Amino acid sequence: MAPFLSRIKSLFRKQANRKQSTAQATQSQNGAPKQQQQPHQAAQNNAQQQPLQTQERVANATTSSASTSNTLTVQLQNQTSSSTVYAYITGLAINNNNALFLLQADARTPYYPPNPSSTGTKLAQNVSIPLGAPGNTVNATIPRIAGGRIWFSIGAPLVFAVNPGPGLVEPSVFNQSDPNINTNFGFAEFTFNSAQLFANISYVDFVGPPISLTLTDTSGGVQHIAGLPANGMQTIANGLTAQTAKDTRRWSSLIVNNSSGQLLRILSPNSGILLNPTWFQTYWTDYVNQVYSQYASQPLTVDTQASFGNVTGQVGSKGNLNFGNGGLFAKPTSADIFSCSTGPFATGSNAETNTIIPRLAAAFNRSTLLLTNNVPDGAGPAQYYTNATTNHYSRIVHAANLDGVGYAFPYDDVTPDNGVPQEGAVFSSSPAVFTLAVGGNNAYA
């Protein structure tokens, strides 16, 4: 990502955070993990429209005199080797009282599903947008949307449904009875409101087909997130297999093949644990013990990048990492670290705690806590994942992306001051055309 974009995004975050009151801080921190709620709901085949994720809170908090147009052109490109490729656009229509929104198959007509009387109600309209032959581009038009996703499927259309609310039942990689379980699909996340368009590639739950993002603004400026090349998922699978051979952990078990033995998707460690709670159960134990031993004799400083400034914690006699008004952090388990949302990383009513959680959780996933006592500013990307015990899924996913970025765990958007963002995002207060390509053919950095 370009240094200019990094500086602007960092500035947006700090301005948004520092303008919030203490009561608002729980809503303005960067990196709140929307994705972690989705697996539980999807596994029950009862997924409602998700709360706003990081980019949406950033976008809503950003103050700007500019106002985007009421609609946006989205270009959907087939960069696969298949002619059976579909796109879907879902979210909440901001200018229609946040009504549940899907775009119809003609790529221009909004569909607002009515509130059904029963769960799992089929959609009354066709929302599968065919992308045509390899290399073809379909132009879509969307209104302002919050909580948006742009989905792609290869080889077969996706099946969506609606529950009372109405709430969208999204495709699930967790529910073996889901009609989409054997379909090759993935998505990018976005919000498009009056302030800006903000979008990112997500690998928080799983890695699917390669997706790239290109955003052109009204002045001709271009931002590009390269994503994976066509063989990127296989590269990740090879890396996970090699890591299992090295440390005997369940990394290769995250690889999911279809009934023909072909690579279908790769689950994140958190997703793997949700389906198999014993996986990685003791993986982080020794590293966590080393961290807590180190900070029993020296302080750990966390830059909250909010009104709380730098806060200092130390492990006390009861074994907790004590940040005073920022709260106590017990030793996290592997599930806590990979999910970033349970145990000591569960958010609550303490706004200061809620600003510490993302930065501490990111430092564990990136294994930087034994390298520096200054989080997140004391270590940069070159030092991430260098410990033998680390989030190797995130390490391998980042390495496989042509430009090294993409949301690989829930707080992967935690960035040092003036640092290089890792989450693979594009944003603009004056977007003109937003292009997404699926398949990885002709991918470039």
For this structure, what is the CATH homologous superfamily of the largest domain?
Answer: Thaumatin
Looking at the overall shape, the CATH architecture of the largest domain is Sandwich
Structural class determined from secondary elements: alpha+beta
Question: What's the domain count?
Answer: 2
Strand content: 25-35%
Q: State the oligomer.
A: single chain
Largest β sheet strand count, sense and barrel closure = 8 strands, antiparallel
Count the helices. How many?
10
TL;DR of this structure?
This protein is an alpha+beta fold and 445 residues long.
How does this model look, in words?
Residues 1-65 have low confidence and may be disordered. With 445 residues, the protein is of the alpha+beta class. A hairpin with a 5-residue loop joins strand 19 and strand 20. The strands form five sheets. Strands 2, 3, 4, 6, 8, 11, 12 and 23 form an eight-stranded antiparallel β-sheet that branches. The protein has a five-stranded mixed β-sheet with strand order 7-1-24-14-15, with no helix packed on it. It is globular, with a radius of gyration of 21 Å. Helix 5 runs antiparallel to helix 10. It has helices spanning 3-18, 25-28, 38-43, 54-61, 232-247, 269-275, 285-294, 334-339, 351-366, 392-400, and strands at 71-78, 85-93, 99-103, 110-111, 121-122, 129-130, 137-143, 145-154, 161-163, 167-169, 184-192, 197-201, 206-207, 211-217, 222-225, 255-257, 263-267, 300-303, 310-315, 321-322, 328-329, 374-375, 425-428, 431-438. It has two domains: 3-232 and 403-438, Thaumatin; 285-397, Metal Transport, Frataxin, Chain A (2-Layer Sandwich).
